[in-house]
Amino acid sequence: MKLIVAIVRPEAVQDVKDALRKAEIHKMTVSHVKGCGQQMGYSESFRGIKTQVNLLNKVRFEIGVNDNFVKPALEAIMGVARTGKIGDGKIFVLPIEECYRIRTGEDGSIAIG
User: Fold this and answer.
1) Rounded Cα distance, 29 and 55, in Å
2) How far is CA 19 from the centre of its chain?
3) What separation, in Å, do the N-terminal and C-terminal C-alpha atoms of the chain show?
4) What is the DSSP letter of 106?
5) pTM to 2 decimals?
6) Based on CB atoms within 10 Å of each CB, which residue in 66, 68, 111, 112 is the most buried?
7) Which helix (H) or strand (E) element contains residue 79?
8) Does domain 2-112 have CATH number 3.40.50.150?
């Protein structure tokens, strides 16, 4: 079992959701987050005052999958979220030691779905 954490541009959210659905991955948690990486933000001027905006809006997907769904999930996300420009995001794949479905008490790969 793995936890896939993907940080993507906000404009890629619907495409990522659609691509995951096509890969038969339906269970996910999506959060709006702020962060910076190689992009380093941008400068803007408001009423004559220059400000450095270095935390940019991003969207974080958290997807728990069984091992056989890792590659399809990665291909789905990268296939639609990649523009080739700085700021496309990152994907982290982490091991899951245990998983429990609260409603039924099931555990392991059955609980993850």
Assistant:
1) 21
2) 12
3) 10
4) -
5) 0.86
6) 112
7) helix 70-81
8) no
